[in-house]
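Whiteboard transcription, Tuesday session. T.W. wrote the structure tokens on the left side:
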């Protein structure tokens, strides 16, 4: 079997890989020094497009339109960009063994890749209902969304089951974004999740009440406090019904499951130090193994702002951690600034668009107009801990207003009165 040698290898072909490659090129990597090894068949792309524009009924997004780095306003990097820079894209290649001691990766086909420096950018994989032995969860037309192949299959099913019934299992990011896009495709949509409100890891009950109300007005049925316990399929093996724990059953032509993800760290178990479910790194994304870095979803890193270590699954961190690691690798002993990340999450669905910055801990103050029937709703929430604002959420903000809430979360200004803060609302952030 073939053996190849590279100075630098990025393992994984997602968002982090593309932004890391751009930073390598910026820093002057020489031709044939760098390779990206990916099990996907396409060059790195902006993954958030898959749950949004990729599934639109009209003018859906397609590659090469959303290759990185367009998601952050940068130049688009199509496959020819990599070849032009002498960066080898090794696609459709699954690595099944990683030996960090000998600096060797082995593919499913038996090919080996030697490296001097490795960046682990393997990302996450979706949690599947078959993992929990849910009855009938292997039926056709039950979809998960992580990669472009998943999106292609879902898109074909949406066309084949035109104006049908869809059940979305899960009330997080994927659940909210895909329920919206299925409704835009004129499906009869039901959302099912066990929690008391949607997006519970971030949303307060007050924030969630707006989105649940808005989705209901759009005609999406929301079923809370229960889970899918089984699926019934027809003679062709296609799902026809979702059985719920509370005894109800829902007709379904399509089921989409979004119940979370797991960082892909299995290849490195026992070889590298782990923490909080991810690979432990320092502020430059160095792991406990020399010449091995980990970025994006798989990295558990020091979050300087909160004097804590965390793992963050979001595209913004995937981009920025990749750039930080490459700068550290190529700095040749020069001192770099430590990674000083401000957590950032956002979403878009229907005509809505929200952004969140900081930490969602402590007391909360809801401000603004959160009436789901308002023609242009604009509202937000501050999180206050130890007398300081530590987090801020805003729906319907302008670019300047979003910058203002980001600044508040970074600066953490003191608050003397929650009543006054509620009254000031967005103007509090604008004055910082």
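and on the right, the sequence the group agreed on:
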């Amino acid at each position: 079997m073939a053996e190849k040698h590279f100075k630098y290898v990025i393992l994984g072909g997602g968002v982090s890989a593309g932004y890391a490659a751009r930073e390598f090129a910026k820093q002057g990597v020489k031709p044939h020094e760098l390779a990206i090894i990916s099990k996907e068949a396409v060059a790195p792309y902006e993954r958030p497009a898959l749950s949004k524009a990729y599934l639109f009924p009209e003018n859906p997004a397609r590659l090469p339109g959303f290759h990185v780095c367009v998601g952050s306003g940068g130049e688009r990097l199509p496959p020819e960009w990599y070849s032009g820079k002498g960066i080898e894209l090794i696609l459709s290649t699954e690595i099944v063994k990683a030996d960090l001691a000998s600096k060797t990766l082995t593919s499913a086909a038996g090919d080996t890749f030697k490296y001097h420096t490795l960046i682990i950018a393997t990302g996450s994989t979706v949690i599947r209902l078959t993992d929990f032995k849910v009855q009938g969860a292997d039926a056709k037309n039950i979809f998960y969304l992580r990669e472009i192949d998943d999106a292609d299959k879902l898109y074909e099913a949406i066309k084949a089951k035109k104006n049908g019934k869809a059940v979305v299992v899960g009330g997080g990011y994927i659940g909210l974004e895909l329920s919206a896009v299925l409704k835009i495709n004129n499906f009869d949509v039901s959302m099912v999740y066990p929690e008391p409100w949607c997006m519970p890891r971030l949303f307060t009950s007050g924030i969630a009440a707006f989105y649940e109300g808005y989705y209901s007005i759009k005609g999406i049925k929301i079923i809370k406090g229960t889970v899918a316990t089984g699926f019934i399929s027809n003679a062709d093996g296609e799902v026809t019904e979702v059985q719920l724990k509370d005894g109800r059953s829902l007709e379904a032509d399509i089921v989409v499951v979004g119940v979370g993800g797991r960082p892909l760290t299995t290849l490195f178990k026992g070889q590298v130090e782990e923490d909080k479910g991810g690979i432990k790194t320092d502020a430059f994304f160095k792991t406990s193994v020399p010449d091995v870095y980990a970025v994006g979803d798989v990295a558990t890193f020091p979050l300087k702002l909160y004097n804590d270590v965390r793992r963050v699954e979001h595209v913004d961190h995937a981009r920025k951690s990749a750039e930080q690691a490459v700068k550290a690798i190529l700095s040749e002993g020069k001192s770099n600034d430590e990674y000083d990340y401000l957590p950032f999450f956002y979403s878009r669905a229907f005509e809505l668009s929200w952004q969140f910055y900081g930490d969602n801990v402590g007391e909360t103050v809801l401000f603004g107009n959160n009436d789901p029937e308002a023609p242009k709703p604009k509202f937000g929430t501050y999180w206050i801990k130890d007398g300081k604002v530590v987090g801020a959420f805003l729906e319907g903000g302008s670019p300047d207003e979003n910058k203002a809430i980001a600044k508040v979360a970074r600066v953490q200004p003191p608050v003397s009165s929650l009543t006054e803060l509620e009254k000031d609302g967005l103007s509090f952030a604008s004055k910082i």
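Someone added at the bottom: The first strand starts at residue 3 and ends at 11.
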